[in-house]
Amino acid sequence: METKENICFQVNAKYSEDLAKESLEWITLITGDDLNTAGDMDNFYEVLKDGTLLCKLVNTIQPGIVKKVNSSTMAFKCMENINAFLDAAKQLGVPPQETFQTVDLWERQNLNSVVICLQSLGRKADKYGKPTIGPKEAEKK
């Protein structure tokens, strides 16, 4: 039977610092915020953990999609922000299998899934007149 530590190691082994860096650079392009865009796990987590930047991102893509952004650093308020971002990402076209669970970010359980979600959202941004990241999405026929 696999331990939780071993599972976390396997998940974290998939994490790409290059894609994380690309995601953070894209967020700065969209929001205009001056962020540390280093792709290492520690920085990626610190920049995104409270969910406020994620909410600002989706509100910049589609104004008003997240009605209330909590500025409090209390755990449940930060998790509300992350949940609001996830709901907005789905509304903006990110498929459920490319989103993440709140604990993946808040408890740092699977930062790779956060990168996947941001990359997916980045591919959808052109539909809202915003710059994109990653490969162009295939057209559905």
UniProtKB/TrEMBL annotation:
Family matches, as Gene3D superfamilies: Calponin-like domain
Limits of the Calponin-homology (CH) domain: 17-126
GO biological processes: actin filament organization
Matches recorded under Pfam families: CH (PF00307)
Matches recorded under InterPro entries: Calponin-like, CH_dom, CH_dom_sf, SM22_calponin
Highest taxon of the lineage: Eukaryota
MF (Gene Ontology): actin filament binding
GO CC list: actin cytoskeleton
PANTHER family: CALPONIN, TRANSGELIN
Protein name: Calponin-homology (CH) domain-containing protein
